[in-house]
Write a structure and sequence with these properties.
The protein has 132 residues and is of the alpha+beta class. It is 26% helix and 33% strand. The protein contains three helices and eleven strands; from the N terminus they run E-E-H-H-E-E-E-E-E-E-E-E-H-E. Strands 1, 2, 3, 4, 7, 8 and 11 form a seven-stranded mixed sheet that branches. Strands 5-6-9-10 form a four-stranded antiparallel sheet.
Length: 132
């Protein structure tokens, strides 16, 4: 039984809303998909989250959480935030880390804007539909 619920941010694309995780996931290699699936599966059963699997960010990334895994020799850092008790919202899954810097450079800014959209009361999240 999963202890956590995962939600996905819905971004505007043309004239409709797109689940950012599904859009990103479908473009990834089999290894990235498998490692992402493993990270989500592991975290879904943990009562509390901590390093090395999860990092709580500070400074310009204050209020954001990174899920940490490596795939295809790249440090992957999907960004999100907590959305209530045992709820995690993926805001920006495509983030990677190189030399202690996020790629893309404005990852935290974009994720924070998305978090603010949700806080503003806009219904822009849905439960993530991960394959079993």
């Amino acid at each position: 039984m999963n202890l956590w619920t995962f939600k996905c941010f819905l971004k505007e694309k043309e004239n409709y809303l797109v689940d950012v995780v599904t859009e990103w996931y479908e473009k990834q290699s089999a290894q990235v998909q498998a490692r992402f699936d493993n990270a989500v599966e592991f975290l879904s059963h943990q009562p509390t989250w901590k390093r090395p699997q999860v990092g709580t960010l500070t400074d310009e990334c204050e209020g954001l959480i990174e899920i940490r895994f490596t795939a295809d020799k790249v440090e992957r850092r999907p960004l999100g935030c907590y959305g209530g008790e045992k709820v995690f919202i993926f805001l920006m899954p495509e983030v990677t880390e190189r030399g202690n810097n996020f790629v893309p450079k404005k990852a935290c800014e974009t994720a924070t804007k998305r978090k603010d959209i949700i806080k503003g009361g806009k219904d822009r999240v849905q439960i993530c539909e991960f394959e079993d």
